Amino acid sequence: MRVGLLTEGGYPYAAGEGGEWCDRLVRGLARHEFEVYALSRSARQEEGGWYALPGNVRRIRAAPLWGAPAGTAPVRRERRRFTHHFGDLAAALTAPGDQAYRFAEGLYGLADLARDEGGLASALRSEAALRALEAACRAPGAHPGAYGARVADLLVVSGLLERALRPLSLDWYGSPDGDLGLAGVDLCHAASAGPAALPGLLAHRFFGTPLLVTEYTVRLREHYLAGPAGLSLSVRTLLSAFHRLLAGEIYGRAALVTAGDAQVRRWQERCGADPARLRTVPPGVDAGLYEAVGEACPRAAGGDGGPAGPVVLLAGGPPEPWLWEAFTVLRMAEPRVRPAVTGTAPDAPLPEGVTRVTACGPDDYAAADAVVVCAPGDGFPVPLAEAMFCGRATVAPDTTAVREVLGGTGLVVPPRDPHALAEACLALLRDPERARRLGAAARARALELFTVEQNIASFGALYLELLSRAPVRHDLASPFDGPARSRAALDASAASAPPSWAGRR
Amino acid sequence: MTPIQHAPAPVPAPASPGPVGISGAPAGPRPDPVRALLRDHRALCADAVDPLEIAAGLEAHGVTDGTAAGLGHRDVFSLAEELYARAERTGPPPGAGGVPAPAGGGTCPARPGALGVLELAVWLWLTGCGPAAGLLPAALAHGHRLPGPRALAAAAAPTALALACAAAPAAWCAHAVAGYARRRLADCRSLAEFHGRVRRALLASVAVFLGVLCGCVASARSALPVAEATAAPALAAVALGALLFLGRLCAAHGLARPALAAGLAACAAEAVPLLALLAARLPGCSALDRPVTWLTGAHGPAALPLVACAVPALALLVHATTVLPRAAVHGREDLSAAPVRPGAPAGTGAPTTPSEEHAP
After folding, report:
1. pLDDT value at residue B344
2. Burial, A167: exposed, middle or buried (Cβ in 10 Å; 0-12, 13-18, 19+)?
3. C or N: which end of chain B has fewer Cβ atoms within 10 Å?
């Protein structure tokens, strides 16, 4: 099968987020061929180099989502068409109520125009686009935030929209010189639901290619939390509406949407993904590193750590103030406890008796009698999974994905409650047998759910599921094109070739 | 958009229950736990443009569905909707629009590249050979002796001096227009208003420059000895100066193509009379020199460069007053904070075969 892997600011660029799982996916599914369609976010990223690519990556096409646009002004007839479609899109950004249909009309109208006439870059930054945006902002019932837009705001919005819509103008959808582009792939797999998935949407529209969207962090949420800074209220209103509507359109059109954890899943459902087409595929953690540690307990003395005292490891980043408080409470109750912390700066002063762990490896987990994992507010808590692979009993404050990762194989305490955390640690330290049982259960659970192999196998199964549901396409090679001939004998070796419905040449 | 800057607020402790009477009925108003949350995240709620932004910010500060359930909501999203509905919006502060960063330099940046070099050549040609373009055809048409290099230089000197004196006012006028347009971008509420104000400013700057230029030409012509003391050579110098000014103004705002076209048209218009006179010497084409003979006879030799420069300058003025007041022209560099890779073909993905460049 030939898979088009669509990324934005990640794989195959080494300097980017989320490249690692794409790399493992491409290497793990060696029987499938991949074409990577990558959008880069900055010059720094492009200069950062690429991952080493395995042999089943057949080609890479890259385009920048930054820098100056290129393109020519549309001729007069196309200008009217552009104004009409862009007007729809702009009106959908500000009008009240559900505007998904209007947004899609405008988006696909622009996509058709770009496919017929070439690039839209200069049209999207032209006076006509500014007028359409202005009309949308001043329309009756428009969002109050957009109403105050000034000319400078309109310019910024049109510039940012031009960047976000750049995938429409690319020559990835088949070109006159016989390059099939995305028409030649069986399946589009987008690594986020932002501009990365736009080529997948267009391939779905033009060629009926099924689209699989995978998110480990929600692109829309990322836009809200880490979008371009210093923008005015009107610009933020219009941009947020654009990203929200785009995410809704992508979730609605995708054949399958996968989420890394329940938080991502809730966002996707909230933004319009059909629960029937949502799957949860936890990210994989390389279990090989922790194989040597296993369930073995390094000290014969068991949980209380022998004469030196038990070790409590704090994993998952620099400790917040309330965690120091929890350690103080813990040491008041059990003075022999030796806390160890990760993620602190090398020159930061540490309280008496606290050891510093610079790079938290399997041995550090194995040496700890209890592991406290304070996961960051969002995303999959990788340190927690690592501790589980090492068979450690864990205590974790209840943040986003902690409950579903632990699933009863560790202790969950209310966040920002030092006394509850200290009590949970004490409970584990005073009952080594229970800690051992919990650790074994955690390791079994991690091995079942959070390995790389499981992650890759899930995607392999999803690919086959999508391909089995996609209609066979005859548009590329009609059976009646050539002269009649007798049917060729079945070739026994054909089974070794990867299955493919599209992209025959 | 900046929940990061927002001070990490502790998860609100449930508001202390109000005084409860013996019968269990609350004596005072019921406590409102959402209000505490609203107070803790006031900046986030006041700045948010939709409920999802509040939800993202709340989650980043550790508010979970469990917290939301404690406040009587199904999930964080529904809690965020209530916060969004109840937040007091502080509308945009006056003058706090997303002012685009002023483009570096701004006035008349000399744009390097083939177009720029060609443009420079055209300007030099027009300045140096403009007066000569009138003298030569006039001499040819009326059978006078051809002027020598000394006479040509003497004819060109006042114009060149006047233009050199007018260079600084031209730069100042262009700078003023560009600065005015940038300031109006930030405070104009509609495109039509912006268009009108910038157009008026543009016309005013052209008028100011023409006034200064007339003064420069008059002074230069009184300071240097001139061959003919009529109005036509002075007007030709003014027309040439106006053409150069408008050309630089257009080119500085990314309209190099029309500016160059006007310059080339002026060059061509100066060359055509000469060619027409030469062609008139061919048998059967003697009528070709009539217009040139009439024009130079009636208005003097300077009429030729006057017409050749005034017509393109007028055309360029019309074009500039139509196109330069557009906001899109002035906002090209608004995203200058982002890195710009010159000459990057954004419209074409660079196809590469990884098997060639990267051995798997």
Report:
1. 33
2. buried
3. C
Say yes or no: A61 contacts chain B, CB-CB below 8 A: yes
pLDDT tens profile A192-235? 999 999 999 999 999 999 999 999 989 999 999 987 878 889 99
Question: For residue B112, what is the enclosing H or E element?
Answer: none
Quick: pLDDT tens for A325-347.
888 888 888 888 888 888 777 77
- Domains along the sequence of chain A with CATH: 2-67+171-280 (3.40.50.2000), 76-159 (no CATH), 288-449 (3.40.50.2000)
Spatial distance between the Cα atoms of A180 and A367, rounded to a whole number of angstroms: 56
Q: Which of B63, B187, B193, B335 to mutate to test the interface with A (most CBs of A within 10 A)?
A: B335
ipTM, two decimals: 0.87
CB contact under 8 A, A61 and B347: no
Q: How confident is the model at residue A495 (pLDDT cuts 50, 70, 90)?
A: very low
Beta bridge partners of A315: A373
**In this complex, which of B47, B56, B339 lies closest to A43 when CB atoms are compared?**
B339
| Selected residues 409-448 of chain A with any CB under 8 Å from a CB in chain B | 415-416
Determine the distance in angstroms separating the CA of A297 from the nearest CA of chain B, rounded to an integer.
34
Q: How many CB atoms lie within 10 A of CB A101?
A: 11
- Burial of residue B326, with CB atoms counted within 10 A of its CB: 0-12 exposed, 13-18 middle, 19 or more buried: buried
Residue B16 domain-assigned (yes or no): no
* Cβ neighbours of B342 in A, within 8 Å: 68
